[in-house]
Amino acid sequence: MSIVIGIAAFISTLLGGLFALKLKDRLHLVLGFSAGAIIAVSFFEILPEAIELGSGTYNVSTVTSFVGLGFLVYLILDRLIILHSHNTEDYEICGHSEQRGMLGAGSLSFHSFLDGVVVGLAFQAGPAVGLIVSAAVLTHDFSDGVNTANLILKNGGTVRKALLWIIADAIAPMLGILSTLFFTLPTAVLGLILAVFAGDFLYIGASDLLPESHHKHPKILTTVMTAIGMVVIYTIVKIAA
């Protein structure tokens, strides 16, 4: 059953990425939606899951501290990349760098890998638990594909590079599921790892995608798209729960 879930995650992520590539001419609107979606995924899915997984060992304050750590680490990495890219012609033209896009896409892909690990470990706990966790994971795989494509495109990456990262992100959960055939991981530790990624995604959404969606475009419409992105993810997560 877990392998079937992995295939479904692959298809969902791939469709999301292709959707973003199809609408690349309206990238500011997709970015607005994507910013809302990734912030909502962090608040409404990853953080609650991290708190739940870590609750038996760590208190809420400890888990949220790791959220702050994830935000800070990603901030430092992002600023270092900007400093290294500041002298390049591409950076001076578009204000971004392909390295920054790859950092974001890589973070999303690694989180997708952890999604697969969570699914695999959940099925080790029992079929019912596995199906519940799988439903939560599949709810945001589509937006993961959208976000991955957007992070590459808006930072000067080509459509081909975006497609390669979309495929990598789509394969990641399948690899995560397969990896759990060879090891087990304490759920509390996994909760802290997810908390770090919650912080990463809050930074990506609030500091990267959200400002870019408003750059040189009507702010009312992009703000509406951001709100829609948050509402859509919130609704899907609640229905899946």
Quick description:
The chain has helices at 2-22, 27-54, 60-85, 89-94, 98-125, 127-154, 159-179, 187-214, 219-240. The protein is mostly helical.
List the main descriptive attributes of the protein structure presented here:
single chain, 241 residues, mainly alpha, globular
How would you describe the overall organization of this protein?
The protein is mainly α. It has one domain (2-209, 218-240). It is 86% helix and 0% strand. The protein has 9 helices and no strands. It has helices at 2-22, 27-54, 60-85, 89-94, 98-125, 127-154, 159-179, 187-214, 219-240. The longest helix is centred in the first third of the chain and has 28 residues, at 27-54. The chain is globular, with a radius of gyration of 17 Å. Mean pLDDT is 80; it is low at 83-95.
Summarize the helices and strands and which ones pair or pack.
Layout (H helix, E strand, L loop, with lengths): L1 H21 L4 H28 L5 H26 L3 H6 L3 H28 L1 H28 L4 H21 L7 H28 L4 H22 L1
Helix pairs in contact: 1-6, 1-7, 2-3, 2-6, 2-8, 2-9, 3-8, 5-6, 5-7, 5-8, 6-7, 6-9
From the N-terminal CA to the C-terminal CA, the straight-line distance is: 19 Å
Q: Supply the helix-strand structural class.
A: mainly alpha
Q: How many strands, which pairing sense, and closed or not: the largest β-sheet?
A: none
Q: Write the H/E string, N to C.
A: HHHHHHHHH
Mean pLDDT: 80
**Total separate domains:** 1
Roughly how much helix do the residues carry, as a percent range?
over 70%
E-strand count: 0
The radius of gyration over CA amounts to 17 Å
Contiguous runs where pLDDT drops below 50 for at least 5 residues: 83-95
Number of helices: 9
Shape verdict: globular
